[in-house]
Write a structure and sequence with these properties.
42% of the residues lie in helices and 11% in strands. The chain is α/β, with parallel strands linked by helices and 366 residues long. Helix 6 (176-190) packs parallel to helix 7 (205-217).
Length: 366
């Protein structure tokens, strides 16, 4: 299942991280010790992280050269390394890094989150993506791409027929419906996704309709995060429901803060209850549902899902009888669910009800 479901073994010669302490590497002297440490491990290095520090163009060029010699490298994290850089500086620094990545035949995961990628930066990323047949995991969270950046990214991936991503995360980029439609079209044809995160992107009607079609062709999807969007239109809800019913391997799905309402919960939770036997986590917190039929749909799901480990329904006015039914069902399970349904008072320790939920934890999530 690739990096989503396997971890690089804990061998100090295979893992390297620049301490994420917000340091700025300006000169060759500043960066030399980092480069020396990478070079010492280059024959075995499988995972490297430069994240949460900043690097001048000179420093980026030098560390990129060191990384390019790590032919066994599988994972590279570069989160928040261009904070405060203007577009010209960003492009000049990103270019040698992407050229280094082209020299890494085993690179499967690239994390460029929190870097405010402009369209020009996406163009630099383009050549790498079009020649990165081994890449399986691309994470671009919190980059302010917007609809235009998302459209440019979709164009880039459309021109990379050998790119078969299994993990794609674009959380908090304000891509809106315009950007989501274009990206969903790409993934509809890619057919390789196993984890998809599009949380907090102002996605509404058109975006979710296209996402529904996208899900139907990615039959190995296991982790879905649609949280903090606007899944409150009946056509969108039915599109997602129809797609969920066609999938078999969903293990984690986050639909929190999507304005699902009673109809949305009844429809989507009902679809999950009748499909996807491997479901382990369901988050439908803060969705403004309250009728007893929505609650009963959740009860039915809890009865059916033997592998369920986490159920989060906080921030909703669920009927007390349904809460009791879920707790009763949970108490009879061999592996009890982490059932979160009530917010604790900020000045108190956990309430009795919430304490029972929180202490029913027997986590098995890898």
């Amino acid at each position: 299942m690739g990096l989503l479901f396997s971890k690089i073994e804990n061998d100090e010669n295979k893992v390297f991280e620049v301490p994420p302490d917000g340091r700025h590497y300006e000169t060759l002297q500043d960066i030399q010790i980092v480069c020396d440490q990478i070079t010492e491990k280059q024959e075995q290095l499988a995972e490297a992280a430069l994240s949460y520090n900043t690097y001048s163009e000179l420093a980026t060029d030098r560390v990129s050269e060191a990384i390019s010699n790590c032919k066994e490298l599988r994972s590279l994290s570069c989160e928040k390394i261009y904070e405060g850089a203007c577009e010209g500086e960003l492009i000049q620094s990103l270019d040698p890094l992407m050229r280094a990545c082209l020299n890494l035949p085993n690179l499967q995961r690239l994390n460029l989150g929190n870097n405010t990628l402009t369209e020009g930066a996406v163009d630099i990323l383009a050549f790498f993506l079009q020649n990165a047949a081994c890449l399986k995991d691309l994470e671009l969270d919190h980059n302010l791409l917007g609809p235009q950046g998302a459209n440019r990214l979709a164009d880039v991936m459309r021109e990379a027929p050998d790119l078969k991503l299994q993990v794609f995360s674009i959380r908090a980029n304000d891509i809106q419906d315009i950007g989501m439609v274009e990206l969903a079209l790409v993934f509809t044809h890619m057919k390789s996704l196993r984890k998809l995160c599009v949380a907090n992107n102002s996605i509404a009607h058109q975006g979710f309709v296209m996402l529904g079609k996208c899900l139907e062709t990615n039959l190995k999807l296991q982790v879905i995060d649609f949280s903090d969007n606007f899944l409150n239109d009946k056509n969108c809800i039915n599109s997602v429901r129809h797609s969920i019913q066609k999938l078999s391997y969903i293990t984690i799905i986050d639909l929190s803060d999507c304005l699902l309402g009673d109809f949305g919960v009844r429809t989507i939770v009902g679809a999950l209850a009748c499909s996807n036997a491997f479901l382990r986590e369901l988050n439908i917190a803060y969705n403004e549902f309250e009728d007893i039929e929505a609650g009963e749909t959740i009860v039915e799901l809890v009865h059916r899902k033997e592998l369920l480990e986490v159920l989060d329904i906080r921030g909703n006015n669920i009927h007390p009888r349904c809460v009791s039914d879920i707790q009763r069902c949970n108490s009879s399970k061999e592996n009890r669910i982490t059932f979160l349904f009530k917010e604790p008072h900020p000045e108190d320790s956990l309430t009795t009800e919430h304490s029972e939920a929180a202490l029913d934890v027997n986590p098995k999530i890898e």
